[in-house]
Amino acid sequence: MTNHVVLKLDAAKKRMGGPAVKFCALLLLSLFLSNRLLAAASPELSTVVDKKVLESIRIDLTPQIKFVQERYSVPGLSLVVVHGRRILWAEGFGYADKSRREAATSRTIFRAGSLAKPFTAMAVMQLEEAGEIDIDRPLKDWLPELSIRSRFDTTIAQPTVRSALTHHSGLPGDLNKGMWSTEPFTAVAARLKEEYLAFPPKLVFSYSNLGYTLLGHLVQNTSGVPYSEYMEKRIFDRLGMHRTAMRLRNDMAGQLAKGYRDGKETELLPIRDLPAHGLLTSAEDLGKFMGAILSPPVDTEPSVLGRDAVDEMLQPQNLDVPLDLDIAIGLGWFLEHGSISGAGRVVRHGGTTLTFSSELILLPDEDLGVAVLANSHGSRAVVARLAEEILERILRQGATKQALEPFWERIDREADAKLADISGNYATDFGLIAVRPDKDEFCACLVEQTFDLIPYPDGWFGIAKDAVPSLPSTLSPLGEMRFQTQIIDGREVIVAENGDKETVLGEKVPLTPVPQVWLDRVGEYELLNPDIHFPVVEPRLRVRDGQLCMSYKMPLVSDKTIQVPLRPISRNEAIILGLGRTRGETLRAFTVDGEERLRYSGFIGRKRSRITASR
Description:
Elements: E1 7-8, H1 25-29, H2 51-71, E2 76-83, E3 86-97, E4 102-103, E5 110-113, H3 116-129, H4 161-165, H5 188-191, H6 209-223, H7 227-236, E6 259-261, E7 264-266, H8 274-277, E8 279-281, H9 283-294, H10 307-313, E9 328-329, E10 334-337, E11 345-352, E12 357-363, E13 368-374, H11 380-398, E14 418-419, E15 424-428, E16 431-436, E17 441-444, E18 449-455, E19 461-463, E20 482-488, E21 491-498, E22 501-509, H12 516-519, E23 523-527, E24 537-544, E25 547-553, E26 562-568, E27 573-576, E28 586-592, E29 595-600, E30 603-609
Parallel strand pairs: 1-3
Antiparallel strand pairs: 2-3, 2-13, 3-4, 5-8, 6-7, 9-10, 10-11, 11-12, 12-13, 14-20, 15-16, 15-22, 16-17, 17-18, 18-19, 20-21, 21-22, 23-24, 23-30, 24-25, 25-26, 26-27, 27-28, 28-29, 29-30
């Protein structure tokens, strides 16, 4: 008989210590990397995890985890690994509270950020399963408070519940004003009356915290129960998740990890948008949640959601959206195939708040899941890569059966792909990028640097290898990509290829003269309604290379300037160019008592001085 094991090795930890672990340069370079070459005739994977296999994984990874915590200033980290409903490994590393030398354990409570979204999606699907809502109906059917402006024909399509669940509603990414405040999230629906839809619904994947804030409001309106109470009674309590909540309870306060930035403890700001990123939870509790997804109870057992509804949440919802390319999204989940070495279907979500990070990954075909939580700013890459590494090691050393068929069929777009002229400016998540093939140049205008281009076959190009080391850290992912411009759904876009995955990096920006009325608005601005705890500083309008841009800084997020290109569409409105999160959103001018002001994402600014247009 095969031996099994549940590892809970942290309950008695109170103080940290032990000899320092030394690593050679080779290990540093290969940290968390695994040998991805599987034997051609490897045996069928087994769903059984042997005790010795799991223990060897833990023994090998423990010093690496501790090293990475030191290397990347991650004071505390907790993880859990499950097979079905069985917890295989649950442990904490480092500190939940450094000043008190309180160790992190698998029962330590962390902020888990956007891991709130799969839970909110589950609550919505409970209401759908009960026949109380129809997720293909407009959000407004259950949110009469919701009012938002639109530049699009809303008689054709309105944001539906399903489109909000899949980030295809066209809603803005955030309402930045008040996001880190005690304002109730139910105030957001009415406050959107001064904002605009960013895109027509179902045009493109565009991550939206706002959409999930509204979904939580829908849960509250429809159930007649406050959202936080509904989540506790209908999901958390039923799963035995007693260290999980959407609002900090008095009995949880002493169990919550401190948050750190650059090794220093920081104040935990309040969170308005609880349904989007307000989850508080522990690794052990996430193990129970993963078990409910991987092995829903049979009909004779109590459950939080039926098998059919769970299956629908894990199915791709956007196969008919051309601009999404290789992005696949379920109902509250991101979907991948083969991204974990040795696995088939991959279902995942992560979360990042100001000083916490989380990652949860499910392998439904293997009945395996892992979740990792950490309490420091900038630790998202650590928790994500560690979660992947644990699963890959389990699969490689003893794992499970492969899926018999692909998770989804790739949209056949090869025949329809039309190449476009690559020269021009593109609005991307990396800022405004100018491609100048006649000069073999790739210009990252955000950092005012130019890099050499090299051509590849079939219209692809990339940054020259000798230029990659000089890329600033914010642009380093570009060095691993190849690019091609295509016309997709009538739009000229720049497509990035990384490995076997393609995504839309940005949209071509037509360079048009800036109207005089907008040139007159160029200058520095002061916010008239700032958030005390979450500052937005140095807001300004400027013209760069003939392109109107808006810039500002969010110091608690990054010390880098955020700069986005604008296109005026009227005397009083300009939109952020590009596709995806924050793109398509509106900057609006209006007048109060004869004084002109600008409004963006709930913030209102007044001009201070004029900046001379550059170049």
